Amino acid sequence: MATSKIERLMNLVICLLSTEHYLTADKIRTLVKGYDDSRSTEAFNRMFERDKNELRDLGIPLETGRHLGSEIEGYRVNRSAYELPAIDLDRDESAAVTMAAALWDDPSMASVARTALLKLRAGGVELVADTDLTVGVRAATPRAMGSEAVVAVLLRAVENQLPVTFSHRPSPTAEPTTRRLEPWGVVTHRGRWYVVGHDLDRGKTRTFRLSRILEPVEIGTATFTRPDDVDVRALVAAAAGFADSGDRGVARVWVAEGRGGGVRRAATDLEPSERGGRAGAIVSLREWSADSLARQVVGLGEDAVALEPPVLVDLVVAGLRGALAGADA
Asked: How far does the signal peptide extend, from start to end residue (predicted)?
C-alpha cells in the first residue's frame, strides 16, 4: 500500500529533526518511508522538491548545507528554531486562556479550543477558570456561562456603564422575574459566570448567575457611575457562598477506599477511617462548593457520607431524597 502524503511528510520531518548533520537527498530517500514508492530517480526528485516546498510553506525551518568533507548539498531541520519555547503563563493569563476557550461555543471553534487547551496542559501549563481558584483545575464551560448573546450584551453594558433589564430565574425550576440592574462587572467564580451590580428595584447590590438570565437583555440609555471602591470579585464570592473567609468552615466527608477520586484530590487532609466495616478515609476540604460537593457525595451513593457542616449534610440528604423519589415515580 502506498504511503500517504501526510505520513510521508511526517516521516521526513522526524528524519530531519533527528540528525545533527546535513542529509543528502539520496540518503533521505533510503531513510524516509514513502520515497520508496517513487519508480525512478526523476520521480523521487520531483516528489522531494514538492515536499521541501510544503515544509517551508508550513513554516518548518528547513536548512541546507554540506557536511564536513562532502561536496553534496544536504538538508536538516533546525531543532532549536522548530521547537516552541517554554510556555510560561501567569495565573491571570491562564485564566484568560481558559475563559476565552469557553466562549468558543461554535462546533468548529470548540474543537480548536479543546485542542489548544490540551496542548497547553501537555506543555505543563496549569489552566484555571478563575484567579481565585486554589484547588484543582477546572475550565469554565459554555453551559456555566449561559447564552453568548447575554454575555455580549452585559459586557457592552458594563463597558459603557448602561443599565440593563432582563428576565432571571432564581432557581432552575422557578418562574422568571424581571430585573433592572446597573452592572458593575461580569466575572467567573468556581467555574460559573456572574454579573454583579446595583439592583434598581430593590436598591441593593445583587449578583446573578448568567446561566439563569434569559434572552433578550435590553440596554438602557441613562448612564450610571460605578462605585470606585467596589470589589466585584469579592461580592460574587460572598453572594455565591464561596468566600474564603466565610464561617462555613471545613467540609468533612467519609469516602470508601478506592472511591471518590475527585473528592480526594481536593482534600487538604485525609484521615483513615472505617465505617460500617468498610475501609475508607475522612476527607477534609477547606475550599469547597456546597452544591458541587453535595452532588459528588450523592453520586457516590453508599460509598460516601457527608459529616459536616450541617449545610452540606442537608444538601446531601435532600439530594438523596430527590433521587429516591425519582426512582419510585
From this structure: none
Same domain, 179 and 218: yes
Residue 190 Rama label (left phi>0; alpha psi -120 to 50; beta):
left
Give the model confidence (pLDDT) of 140-181 as tens digits.
444 556 677 888 899 899 999 999 999 998 877 778 999 999
pLDDT, tens only, 14-43? 888 888 888 888 888 888 888 887 788 898
| Residue 139, helix vs strand vs coil | coil
Q: Is residue 276 one of the residues assigned to a domain?
A: yes
Instruction: Please indicate, yes or no, if residue 245 is contained in any of the structural domains.
Output: no
Domain of 224: which CATH number?
A: 2.30.30
Residue 105: burial class (beta carbons within 10 Å; 0-12, 13-18, 19+): middle
- Number of domain units in the chain: 4
Residue 246 lies in a domain: no
**Does 44 map to a domain?**
yes
Q: Is the pTM of this model over 0.70?
A: no
* Between residues 233 and 223, the one the model is more confident about: 223
Q: What is the DSSP string of 248-260?
A: S--EEEEEETT--
Say how far apart CA 286 and CA 268 lie, in whole Å.
7
- 194 and 157 in a common domain: yes
Distant-in-sequence contacts of 57-60, Cβ < 8 A, 24+ apart = 60/13
- Whether residue 278 sits in one domain with residue 222: no
Per-residue 3-state assignment (H helix, E strand, C coil) for 260-308? CHHHHHCCCEEEECCECCECEEEEEECCCCHHHHHHHHHHHHHHEEEEE
Containing domain of residue 280, as a range? 251-328
Other residues' Cβ atoms within 10 Å of the Cβ of residue 18:
12
Model pLDDT, residue 191:
66
Q: Are 153 and 223 in a shared domain? A: yes
Q: In whole angstroms, what is the distance from residue 190 CA to residue 194 CA?
A: 10
